[in-house]
Design goal:
Layout: E1 4-15, E2 18-30, E3 35-39, H1 46-54, E4 61-64, E5 67-70, E6 73-74, H2 80-86, E7 91-94, H3 98-101, H4 108-120, H5 124-137, H6 143-146, H7 156-168, E8 174-178, H8 186-203, E9 206-211, H9 214-220, E10 223-228, E11 231-237, H10 238-243, H11 248-255, H12 269-272
Parallel strand pairs: 3-9, 3-10, 7-8, 8-9
Antiparallel strand pairs: 1-2, 1-4, 1-5, 5-6, 10-11
Helix pairs in contact: 4-5, 5-7, 7-8
Bound molecules: adenosine-5'-triphosphate (ATP) and magnesium ion.
GO molecular function: ATP binding; ATP hydrolysis activity
Subcellular location: Cell inner membrane
GO biological process, one term: transmembrane transport
Length: about 280
């Protein structure tokens, strides 16, 4: 049985000009120990589809699906109380903006310990010990002292490490990482990706890696879903995707990689479709 199974997910937002469909019939599965990358340009519905899984969309969102299960449990039928027991514990998410996701008013130690208190009911000294262990696991030096730091006293890379520590605090079965490296310096990006892959392997987690970067896909994923304008364009294992992309949109994404650049500038997706051909022509369900 797959860890996460989604069939025909549709998310629509109520707007002043009517309903806007941000996710338009996406289906996907993630198995235990598997890394699934969801790739696609800005606005293709990557974050919205995963926020729907987490139940974290605002009330203006209408979420429907033929199926949305985690470990066989129907996520669409959970009560708020049942959802709170699963989300942040068995399914954890690293959000797209690490600094905005940490609370500036509390120390990082407090924020990590709060996860441990809420989900695992740990006592004070046990929490502190586990928080130190977690900061150590994500590569923060002097973890015991750093627990007393506020987010603004840490670098972007360190904040991202803290977010990862919070996400893995309860040993989740599924970790959703939403563009975990985009906000970071290039030199730090590789370290964070390596850390995530190492933790995923050590803990045997399933992982969803959301990115618009084919380089990140190549480094991390077993399987890939390519999304465009809320629809799934293609799904393949990572080798087949790079060697034999089927949809025009995937070909365009690959052609924008630095290795494929000719001349003094990188081609863009718009260059690739200069002839006006329809990108979305080859959507698959
Ligand atoms: N709360 C909301 N209300 C209305 N529209 C929204 C809301 N949240 C997202 N959208 C729209 O849904 C679409 C998909 O957004 P989403 O954030 O999932 O894109 P994304 O693929 O994650 O992009 P990025 O790579 O920039 O993070 C976008 O057009 C976005 O403007
Ligand atoms: Mg996003």
């Amino acid at each position: 049985m797959a860890l996460l199974e989604i069939e025909n997910l549709v998310v629509e937002f109520q707007t002043t000009t009517g309903m806007f469909r941000a996710v338009d019939g996406v289906s996907l599965k993630v198995h235990e120990r598997e890394v699934l990358a969801i790739v696609g340009e800005s606005g293709s519905g990557k974050s919205v589809s995963m926020l729907a899984v987490m139940g974290l969309l605002p009330w203006t969102a209408k979420v429907t699906a033929d199926k949305m299960t985690f470990n066989g449990r129907d996520l669409l039928k959970l009560s708020d109380a049942e959802r709170r027991k699963i989300v942040g514990k068995d399914i954890a998410m690293i959000f797209q903006e690490p600094i905005a996701s940490l609370n500036p008013c509390y120390t990082v130690g407090f924020q990590i310990e709060e996860v441990l208190r809420f989900h695992l009911g740990m006592g004070r000294s046990q929490r502190r010990a586990r928080a130190i262990e977690l900061l150590k696991a994500v590569g923060i030096p002097n973890p015991a002292e750093r627990l007393d730091s506020f987010p603004h006293q840490m670098s972007g890379g360190q904040c991202q490490r803290v977010m990862i520590a919070m996400a893995i605090a309860c040993n989740p079965k599924l970790l959703i990482a939403d563009e975990p490296t985009t906000a970071l310096d290039v030199t730090i990006q590789k370290q964070i990706l390596d850390l995530l892959v190492k933790l995923q392997d050590e803990h045997g987690m399933g992982m969803i890696m959301i990115t618009h970067n084919m380089g990140v896909v190549a480094e991390t994923a077993d399987r890939v879903v390519v999304q465009y304008k809320g629809r799934k364009m293609e799904e393949a294992d990572v080798l087949s995707l790079f060697e034999n992309p089927r949809s025009n949109y995937t070909k365009a994404l690959l052609s924008a990689l630095p290795d494929n650049a000719t001349g003094d500038r990188l081609p863009t997706i718009a260059d690739y479709f200069k002839d006006g051909s329809e990108i979305a022509g080859a959507a698959v369900s």
